[in-house]
Amino acid sequence: MDASALVSGSPNQCYDKLHNILRVLVRWRSIWEVNASSEPTPLPSPAADLASPLSPGTHTVAVRHGSSLTEQRYHVAGTGPVCIAHSGGPGIGWDYLRMPLLEQHLTMVYIEPVGTGASGRLPDPRAYNLATYTHFLHAVIEHLALPEVALLGHSHGGFVAQRYALDHPERVVSLVLYDTSPVTGEDFWSVAVANMERFAQRHVVEHPEAATYVAGLTTRIDQLTDDDATAVLRSISPAYFFDYWGREEEFGPARAALRMYAAPSRGEGPPFDVREELPDVTSPTLVLVGEADFICGPHWARMIHEAIPGAQLVVLDGTGHLGHVERPEEFTTAVVTFLASTREHAES
């Protein structure tokens, strides 16, 4: 910028220009400070004010499922409009999905899916299926007593989010489908395995452990203990990043913190497929995908984008399956811009 442009005009105009520049600098300093910290802010457990369902910290809701009551935990962090986030898996601990930068703009409500972490366990593991996860998500939304919510689903959580938006369109004011697919089944897994094979071939010379990644991806998690399932997830997790080994010092702690629970993999139900239903989605939708996501990549994202009327598609360069970790600024900008535009449209 030409420095003379800053001092041209009236004193009030100069003041306004400088004020706007300072606002931008403060904004970027804030973003830098969040990303400079590798650890999200710890949350109170339990929440400081349990009478308020959106008080920061950990909350527990007793949800009736069949003839039993099961504890469903969720975690609140941040400030601003409410956005509910459903993590992937099934069976992966929720906390990999913490988004500290997004929490500067939104009140994030992170679901801790049943069968994982401190949430309850279902008496019959065969019941860990899409209908169950959707049921528990609805229970949390009802508990929050909000007429409408923004809903973000990652990976398997995106399956849940799609199903919920179709079943409860009146409750979803906006939808973010992040690194997910409209379908699973044989073709989906064949593509994932082929992509993993190519990943292993590219990296096996410098990283011999990559030779085990295809076997890890196809392991029967339902036959393992939680510790063994966690070991498998951690072992293959570099494939979920665009450049794990180039940024291992940065991503290593996140890899070591991953946790997987085996019981949800014992769920029974038909393969997920909402392709024919997606034109019925009425919520404004953002489809967000990493360009190098081997499992829920651009092929599947474009399928969703083309099926949902008016959906927006953002492909994050230089990311795999974890764009909120790999490129947090770009990820946050995409989500915040989209949600702000949907709110403005709803208010106009």
Write the layout of secondary structure elements.
Layout: H1 4-7, H2 11-36, E1 57-65, E2 68-78, E3 82-86, E4 107-112, H3 130-144, E5 149-154, H4 156-167, E6 172-178, H5 186-203, H6 213-217, H7 226-236, H8 248-257, E7 285-290, H9 298-307, E8 312-316, H10 323-326, H11 328-347
Parallel strand pairs: 3-4, 3-5, 5-6, 6-7, 7-8
Antiparallel strand pairs: 1-2, 2-4
Structural commentary:
With 348 residues, the protein is α/β, with parallel strands linked by helices. It has 2 domains: 4-36, no CATH class; 47-348, Alpha/Beta hydrolase fold, catalytic domain (Rossmann fold). Helices cover 39% and strands 16% of the residues. The two termini are 35 Å apart. Residues 1-7 and 17-38 have low confidence and may be disordered.
DSSP helix fraction: 25-40%
Strand order of the largest sheet: 1-2-4-3-5-6-7-8
Low-confidence stretches: 1-7, 17-38
Please report the distance between the alpha carbons of the first and last residues.
35 Å
Largest sheet: number of strands, sense, barrel closure: 8 strands, mixed
- CATH fourth-tier homologous superfamily of the largest domain: Alpha/Beta hydrolase fold, catalytic domain
Question: Quick one: overall form?
Answer: globular
Can you tell me the CATH class of the largest domain? Alpha Beta
Instruction: Fill in the CATH topology of the largest domain.
Output: Rossmann fold
In the residues, how many domains can be counted?
2
Order of secondary-structure elements: HHEEEEHEHEHHHHEHEHH
The helix-and-strand class reads: alpha/beta
CATH architecture name of the largest domain: 3-Layer(aba) Sandwich
